[in-house]
Design goal:
The protein has about 260 residues and is α+β, with helices and mostly antiparallel strands. About 40% of the residues lie in helices and about 15% in strands. The protein has one domain: Class II aldolase/adducin N-terminal domain (L-fuculose-1-phosphate Aldolase), CATH 3.40.225.10. It is built from 8 helices and 8 strands, in the order H-H-E-E-E-E-H-E-H-E-H-E-E-H-H-H. It is globular, with a radius of gyration of 18 Å. The two termini are about 35 Å apart. The model has no long low-confidence stretch (mean pLDDT about 95). It binds zinc ion. Zinc ion binds next to loops.
Length: about 260
């Protein structure tokens, strides 16, 4: 039995894997319902052994993903648990290389939000942290210059290098990468990332932009409890998705 199979059969691992499967599926369905994910893009989560990830398949619809549809890939992007012949997303390397480079990150989202992407194709209009919850990106939102699909580990490694210690990046003329400590936090960060881009876009239409200063962001940070905020918004979005019939009540790890 491989080390991974042994870990998987260990006490409590199945419960933890099931929880992560339900969280990744819920996060995907909610981001799809908010039009942040669409026909492409994906959410991944690091499994408790640290050396494998959960991610959806290449062509599974983001509108109908279930916990059991998720594949397990190793950190080289190879499918190790999933139906025979099934393909991981072409950009699985974006997830594996970021997770390899960032031990503090346990979940990664990649999507292609048109409005946020616009900031990568206009001169002198960088995507800045202008709303209070954009404090998450106070260190900056780097732009990865290579618009290619992140379809091998070398391209993924280069992207992880551009991300560095930041919590999000834009890929020029392509899309976004958001990283977080948990799937729940990743959902909330993804929502706030798109809100912040929309606010900045609207502000540019209205007039001269006055982004929050470093001191103002710091002030906000003093009164902000990230864990409490994540728990509140997760409950709101999951509750709404259950009411709308997007998430079944039987997903007991995520439905309180
Ligand atoms: Zn992409």
């Amino acid at each position: 039995m491989s080390g991974f199979q042994e870990a998987r059969s260990g006490t409590g691992y199945d419960v933890e894997e099931r929880r992560l499967r339900e969280e990744v599926a819920s996060c995907t369905l909610i981001l799809n319902s908010l039009d942040i994910l669409g026909y492409s893009g994906h959410v991944s989560a690091r499994l408790p052994d640290g050396q494998h990830i959960l991610i959806q398949s290449f062509d599974q619809s983001r509108a109908s993903l279930g916990p059991d549809d998720l594949l397990i890939c190793d950190m080289e992007g190879k499918v190790v648990v999933g139906p025979k012949g099934i393909r991981a997303p072409a950009e699985v390397y974006l997830h594996t290389e970021v997770l390899k480079a960032r031990p503090d990150v346990n979940s990664v989202a990649h999507f292609h939000d048109d409005l946020a992407t616009t900031f990568t194709i206009v001169k002198n209009k960088p995507l800045l942290a202008v709303k209070n919850h954009a404090i998450r990106w106070a260190s900056g939102i780097p732009v990865h210059p290579d618009p290619s699909h992140v379809s091998d580990s070398e391209l993924g490694h280069a992207l992880a290098k551009t991300l560095g210690g930041h919590q999000a990046l834009q890929i020029r003329a392509h899309g976004q990468v958001i990283v977080a400590e948990s799937v729940k936090a990743l959902l909330i960060d993804s929502v706030h990332f798109v809100e912040n881009a929309k606010a900045l876009y609207d502000a540019h239409l209205l007039g001269e932009v006055e982004p929050l200063t470093a001191a103002e962001l710091e002030d906000f940070g003093r009164t902000f409890n990230r864990d409490r905020h994540v728990a509140k918004l997760w409950k709101y979005y999951v509750g709404r998705a259950v009411d709308d019939g997007i998430i079944p009540e039987t997903w007991s790890s995520v439905v309180a």
